[in-house]
Amino acid sequence: MYGLQAILENNGWAISAVGITIVFTGLVLLSIFISQLHKFLDLWENKKEIKKIFKKEKTKSIKRISVLFTETHKDTAQKIYLIVQTMEKSFSLSKLLWLAKTRGLERPHSNLNNLLKAGIIMPDNKGYYIWNMDMFKKIIRT
Amino acid sequence: METLFIEFFQNTGFALCDYRNIIMIFIGIIFIYLGIAKHYEPLLLVPIGFGMLMGNIPVFQGLGLGIYEDNSVLHYLYFGVTQGIYPPLIFLGIGAMTDFSTLLARPVLMLLGAAAQTGIFITFLGALALGFAPNEAASIGIIGGADGPTAIFLTAKLAPKLIGPIAVAAYSYMALVPVIQPPIMKLLTTRKERLIKMEELRKVSKKEKIIFPIISFLLCCFLAPAALPLLGMLCFGNLLKEAVVTERLAIAARTSIIDSVTILLGMTVGASTQGNVFLTTESIRIFILGALSFGIATACGLLFAKIMNLFLKEKINPLLGAAGVSAVPDSARVVQVVGQQEDPTNFLLMHAMAPNISGVIGSAVAAGVLWSFMS
């Protein structure tokens, strides 16, 4: 069999079309990846810079929350601080909540939540919490 | 005594000689001449040429001397060709000696390597039209990739009986790149286009060079798994080179391993061209189709570069398209020579290496695709 009939019979057109498409797809994908590779590497090498940017943004957001503390909130925070002083340096949040309730503090859940959001009470990454004195002075005692 | 002498004479090459052996010995001498005197791919043409001499010494069948006899030494050496062992080892060496920097610096030039592979599929259609079986047509088409190891590898898998003519055609055309390509390049480009200067390439970091072989291997082999033996070895060789800590292995791959394999491959391919097996009308058709395939591949690369220029802000020199065929680094050198004929201050060699190397990857992927379709 010869000529166009042989090509048709052996599925030649389809094989060629698919073959060319696969070769092009492979090399196009590869060229796209290569063209972006140095940008990814630059990003990877400057990851510390990126972390710094995120850290700065976090601090800024905490400052924004501190503005929302009213005098009543500040008064409650002082009372909670007095309770924390009676506890270990790393303390259990549930125990602090229980102590706040037994001492008759108003809305203890909400107040503790505000202190957590403001970063005055911080997790010590071991399952307990610590009192951030710097933040406390900055927000409450100003 | 007279009988013994007559029997001895009947077993000599003079008595067993066939005119086809004489023709092939003559062609072998031409190959050796071109390699030594004209410096046309001497590392390939000299072993192939001498292999032709070895393969065409008329021998008494049954003594275990000929390459096609099961128990002969040449047959054992030829095993690396028929089983596709030598080509991946050559790719390992190519990978270990190739610098992918230009490709990484200007990835858009990869498309020229892809475009040149169109020649493979067009020739595949041509071979089908001339009455070759699909597996044979695929093996003939791959000659257009201008990549000897790939052509041998695919032919060993799809049409082992055609290894001799296809290998000789592929290597002959690779050696004749400086003769075949320039007329096509001049025909399909204007002087103004040939004068285009390429912008300077950016510096490529070591990390990019290390990541590239891993990613290109994973990407291409996930897309066309049959390209695994060739691309795997190419990328592995390149990783050995770029990793620096494996410099000893890279040196071995790009010197002793590739040199040994080139000797064995060239010599056994040459020896496989025994006159009675090689000189057939089929071989002549393969040679004609191979030349067409090579020309079409060059033309496709050039035309695609011109098409790309319609969309690119910074124009590329369309001569680079001719380097899309994967005869590394000969076609890139030809681009440099043709470019400098118009403007001696135009340096295109480094830029031409990008499509040249992508042509190697492209032809390996094309071989993988054809193999998976035919098997």
Would you mind describing this structure in some detail?
The complex is a heterodimer of chains A (142) and B (375). Chain A is mainly alpha-helical and 142 residues long. Chain A has seven helices and two strands, in the order ααααααββα. In chain A, a hairpin with a 5-residue loop joins strand 1 and strand 2 (129-131). With 375 residues, chain B is an all-alpha fold. Chain B has 21 helices and no strands. Chain B has helices at 2-10, 13-16, 19-37, 42-55, 73-82, 86-97, 101-105, 110-116, 118-129, 134-141, 148-158, 163-175, 177-188, 191-194, 206-223, 228-242, 247-271, 275-278, 281-311, 330-342, 349-374. The N and C termini of chain B lie far apart (57 Å). The chains are: A mainly alpha (142), B mainly alpha (375). At the A-B interface, helix 1 and helix 2 of A face helix 8, helix 9, helix 15 and helix 21 of B.
Strand order, sheet with most strands of chain A:
1-2
Give the count of structural domains of chain B.
Answer: 1
Radius of gyration of chain A: 32 Å
- Poorly predicted runs of 5 or more residues of chain A: none
Identify the CATH class of the largest domain in chain A.
Mainly Alpha
DSSP summary: helix tally of chain A: 7
Q: Mean pLDDT of chain B, as a whole number?
A: 89
Which structural traits does this protein have?
heterodimer; A: 142 residues; mainly alpha; Arc Repressor Mutant, subunit A; 2 domains; two-stranded antiparallel ribbon; 73% helix; rod-shaped; B: 375 residues; globular
